[in-house]
Amino acid sequence: MKLPNPRRMYERARWLRSDGKPNFKTTIREREPELRSLLVVDVPVVSPQTPLLKCIESMWEANFRAAVVVRAGELSGILTFHDIADYLGGGGRYRIAIERYKNNLYRALSIPVEELMSRNVVHVGISDTIRKTLELMVTLGYGLIPVLDSSNRLLGVVTEGSVVRLYSGRISKRPVSEFMTKSVITADERSSLLEIHKLMVSTGVRRIPLTASEGRVRGVITWRSVLDFIGSHRIYEISKSGDLSEALSIEASSIAEKDVVIVEPQAPLETLVRSMLEKNLDYGLVVEGEVLRGIITERDIMFAVLWF
Length: 308
Prior knowledge:
This protein is α/β, with parallel strands linked by helices.
């Protein structure tokens, strides 16, 4: 019969030496969770009762295209730019502003966030793997996913941008033409903001180049353009009557981004990404001559980083 080792005893969850003192050489060290490296913590967090305008102001100040809605410390929902565009003329929820608030700009922007937010939000835990998180983002088409701790408290989010920054060392030197989205959704430079919202909601895009009649790019209307227009309160300067439809009738080109990153199709992807990071943009345009050939977004770059 094999006798127990008298030099050590196992007492509950701890190893003790034969003299009863702890043996600190036998310790369990926890690994830093993988997702810490991807976590974005400076995320706008609002309550379900936060007025829409206040939420947009927080998103604009944080330069973030979504806000996480928390009730009593726990994840309750998420409000994205597309939810806002849908409500402000882009989709079916515009009828709320028309029927309930009679198109009154001030009243329409006072609606509580909980009436527009997405519920049953897909999320991950801090102990989940990077692989699982990225698979969810890719298969579900999400640009960001909230990360919760073991008590279901919000720690932050993982975004396409945080993935790109973490793996920036893997950015390919191959030409952008191999990674760009070639079928670019564009709009005429004279399009109204209302028309742009409808196009963004129907196609699911967040960036629309505005082109002149000859096809030359005149600017890009993005989620950032819209949040800046509302969050900075310029929308009130435009709508002298306080009517929402008046604010939405402005030409989108008047609030479009003009200082954009433009490269040729043969430019190395790493060159484009470097320029995007310098300008703090999440997209770049690919132009040949003066003709728009494609667009590169953080999602395109994320795919390039992970699969090439």
